[in-house]
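Reviewer 2 asked us to include a model.

Predict the structure of this chain.
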Amino acid sequence: MKKLILSTALFISGLALVNAQSDSKDVQLGIKGGLNSSTISGDDFGDLDSRTSFNAGLVAEIPLTERLSFQPEVLYSGQGFDVREIDQDNIVDTDENIEYQLDYIQVPLLLKAYIVKGLSVEAGPQFGFKIHEEFDYQPNSDGGDIEIDSDDSYVKDFDTSIALGAAYKFDNGFFLSGRYNLGVTDIFEDGTPFEGVDAKNNVWQFGIGFMF
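Predicted model (structure tokens):
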């Protein structure tokens, strides 16, 4: 993981040498939102179906040089995964999924480098604060929600990941973005039946935003 972080930092620094620049020298504030496709990965987990949810929040861009910016964000992020429900009588998959919902307030702290005008890449650490956890065995309809109290949860309240992405900003302030959040810490608490289980959050995010 240290090699990944170092390689990412060197890559961003190298891009800063190209002939590109930010579209503004002023601090900009904006809003963004979009789709999430999330799952849990690790050596102790098999293939899980992705949960589809959404993200939404606030973003700022603080120019450091003509080519580099610091971009902090505060986002709601719906995460977790789907589990295919098994019909025990027929030993076949049913049409229903059980959705395991892990919702976070995510705080990415990103370094952004412009490759050409409007087009940028971004990378940095992301810190997540769990705000909700539940099972939903009827995700396509009302009902079926089983909320998990924080005292009964095996999942940590705090999560850390690395965010890697790209964005394109138009002259009118709108922008498109795509990002992959790679979990670097296990999600399960110590001292629980899942202690030592390799399980990390992984999330694809795609969205649109506007800088004021």
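The chain has a mean pLDDT of 85. The longest strand covers residues 92-116. We have added this to the supplementary material.
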